């Protein structure tokens, strides 16, 4: 069956075909051009509901999200390596082409957090932190100077790269740790220690995986603690998995924010319910969402928590790559 879709979906599908035919997703002129076109296509606000698209397009979307994640991961590893070559890596964060996007998204999330909380968090967990943990770094340096950050990623090499960036800073190295663990292996004794848990956009790269992760967090986070989840809206859902309020069973959804500017991610903030008898948690929901799941694999980097290859800030990543090489 051939899907008859609107022109926007056809444009995205054409770009997907070109991206999926690339020999490599490492930063290059072709990679930059195609992902720039993709973001420009998906960025404008659009009322499209990706859940109502046909199976063929749904499958394409799922594959495209994974390709975007892989490309962003390769980009982050490249720049993490460059930054680690400096004596003080954190003084050179702006060499990363999308650093300003992290600054904007982190400020947005900090403002949402403070508007929905009465106290400054003492301990924060970031799940899916990757080789270039800019969200944690920006929050720790700019907004939460006394907060401890625990970063979790399933990829040990990503954690090693990230640690090399934080260790030279005496203030940050004492407050920021990196742990090689799958989110599904984190138990109550770990998760209930945190006032706030951030869930990166590509931890759980489809609806089933995402719901399973959220369900796990609902079972083990401390009552009253906060969950910050990245999502997407409209055509931007071709770049990120979507989290709906009804997916956060076990949590009270406090606010959902859909940016319309160059910050692509939507942000959902929720509070952990007091106990399992809460009306937002039901045994029927648990039974309906704890079967037929494949083993979860945390994406090895946070990848698409900001838009990949944002053309509004940096139109030529190749020039950035060339000028940023620190010999």
TrEMBL record:
One function term, GO molecular function aspect: nicotianamine synthase activity
One Pfam family, short name: NAS
UniProt keyword Thylakoid, yes or no: no
Catalytic activity: 3 S-adenosyl-L-methionine = nicotianamine + 3 S-methyl-5'-thioadenosine + 3 H(+)
PROSITE patterns, A to Z: NAS
EC number in record: 2.5.1.43
Highest taxon of the lineage: Eukaryota
SUPFAM superfamilies: S-adenosyl-L-methionine-dependent methyltransferases (SSF53335)
GO biological process, one term: nicotianamine biosynthetic process
Annotated InterPro entries: Nicotian_synth, SAM-dependent_MTases_sf
Enzyme superclass (EC): transferase
Keyword list, A-Z: S-adenosyl-L-methionine, Transferase
Role played: Synthesizes nicotianamine, a polyamine which serves as a sensor for the physiological iron status within the plant, and/or might be involved in the transport of iron.
PANTHER family for this protein: NICOTIANAMINE SYNTHASE 3
Similarity comment: Belongs to the nicotianamine synthase (NAS)-like family.
Protein name, entry field: Nicotianamine synthase
Provenance organism: Chenopodium quinoa
Gene name for this UniProt entry: LOC110736499
